[in-house]
């Protein structure tokens, strides 16, 4: 009788401990990393035991939000003794304040290693040459004249020095 009492107390403690552990896991956010490249951000979450149908991913106000609703598999001939895994898991990661992304082009991939990778492309910033508008002809810098322009300029001024005074007067 004492042995039976001890076993029932032990089972009760294990079940409560298992439920408590599952509860802690459910309240604790999913571990996540945030990586950055020149063209995108990559949020990586640990989602062990999740199937693609269990995972929900959203992007809202600079934040990636993940929800995983896992299900326990039933095994014929076995009874649950210690329900220690959380079934509903949440996680989030904030992008930097200055991040500008194209959220509608985001993608999420569930890897076979139990990680979820959420890729958010950055908004492309294009560099564009801006033309200069103005009146009159453009004047090249002295160092930018090509060889043909230099020869033409020399020929126009090559008068053997006879008109140096005329050039100075003009």
Task: Please outline what is shown here.
Helix content is 25%, strand content 25%. It has helices at residues 2-27, 147-157, 164-169; strands spanning 32-36, 40-46, 55-60, 63-69, 88-94, 107-110, 115-121.
What is the CATH C-level name of the domain at 29-74 and 86-121?
Mainly Beta
- What is the CATH architecture descriptor of the domain at 29-74 and 86-121? Sandwich
Average predicted confidence as pLDDT: 76
* Low-pLDDT sequence parts: 21-25
Computed Rg: 36 Å
N-to-C CA distance = 127 Å
CATH third-tier fold name of the domain at 29-74 and 86-121: Immunoglobulin-like
Number of helical stretches of at least 4 residues: 3
Rough shape?
Answer: rod-shaped
Number of strands: 7
Strand content: 25-35%
> From the helix content, strand content and strand pairing, which structural class follows?
alpha+beta
**Strand order across the biggest sheet?**
1-2-7-6
N-to-C series of helices and strands: HEEEEEEEHH
Largest sheet: 4 strands, antiparallel
Portion of residues in helices? 25-40%
Structural summary, described in words:
This protein has 170 residues and is of the alpha+beta class. The chain has a domain at 29-74 and 86-121: Immunoglobulin-like (Sandwich). Helix content is 25%, strand content 25%. Strands 1-2-7-6 form a 4-stranded antiparallel sheet, with no helix packed on it. Strands 3-4-5 form a 3-stranded antiparallel sheet. It is rod-shaped and about 105 Å long. Residues 21-25 have low confidence and may be disordered.
């Amino acid at each position: 009788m004492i042995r039976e009492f001890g076993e029932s107390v032990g089972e009760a403690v294990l079940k409560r401990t298992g439920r408590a552990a599952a509860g802690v896991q459910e309240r604790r956010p999913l571990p996540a990393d945030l990586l950055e490249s020149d063209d995108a951000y990559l949020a990586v979450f640990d989602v062990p035991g999740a199937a693609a149908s269990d995972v929900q991913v959203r992007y809202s106000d600079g934040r990636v939000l993940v929800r995983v609703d896992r299900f326990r598999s039933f095994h014929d001939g076995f009874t649950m003794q210690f329900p220690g895994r959380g079934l509903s898991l949440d996680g989030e990661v904030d992008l930097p304040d200055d991040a500008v992304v194209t959220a509608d082009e985001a993608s999420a991939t569930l890897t076979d290693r139990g990680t979820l990778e959420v890729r958010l492309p950055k908004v492309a910033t294009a560099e564009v040459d801006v033309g200069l508008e103005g009146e009159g002809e453009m004047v090249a810098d002295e160092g930018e004249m090509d060889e043909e322009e230099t020869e033409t300029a020399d020929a126009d001024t090559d008068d053997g020095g006879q008109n140096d005074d005329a050039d100075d007067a003009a």
